[in-house]
Amino acid sequence: MVIPDLEEFLLCATPQAWVDCALKQQETMLIDHANCEKKAASTALNLMFRYIDRPELLTKMSRLAREELRHFEQVLAIMEDRDIRYTHVSASRYAEGLRVHMRKQEPGKLIDVLIVGAIIEARSCERFRVIAPHLDETLSKFYTSLLRSERRHFADYLKLAYQYAGEDISERVTFFLEKERELVLGPDETFRFHSGIPA
């Protein structure tokens, strides 16, 4: 399959209001970014444990988990350089707002996990690209450096979803993309890396 560009895939761009809020709350953005990298690695590892009979998934998720943990370490290093303590912050409503619509039974469950994984990686990549030009040189360079791997993660998840479905799942992908757009454009009380418009 042909992997679409992010602009073609996602149904909306990150609102300027989120960018403005992120620039005012860069410490929180970094802490939550670290959490996102850690969760992404955990998701990949969980897939490896659950679906041991799928060699291509095992290979791609193993690589993805390593990369996400490396990114986690890089975010921690940046935080340490800036004297930012890695404290607990609550999860955003974003990921759960997508996962709540996942099917519970196989094979639909796996397909939905992969679709949601693709969407989260796509949005992460888009947000890195949107925020990077507004940040200081160190952070801008770091976020720009993440674009290639995040786009590959998006592509890997999407390819696997279509491969294991064995049929056209474009309607299912669109369903989740519409839910994602609602989360991104909806009001959000709490700022996080994947939060919506600040309320």
From TrEMBL:
GO biological process, alphabetically ordered: tRNA modification
Domain of life where this protein originates: Bacteria
UniProt GO MF annotations: tRNA 2-(methylsulfanyl)-N(6)-isopentenyladenosine(37) hydroxylase activity
InterPro entries referenced in this protein's UniProt entry, alphabetically: Ferritin-like, Ferritin-like_SF, tRNA-Hydrxlase_MiaE
Name of the protein: tRNA-(Ms[2]io[6]A)-hydroxylase
Organism: Acanthopleuribacter pedis
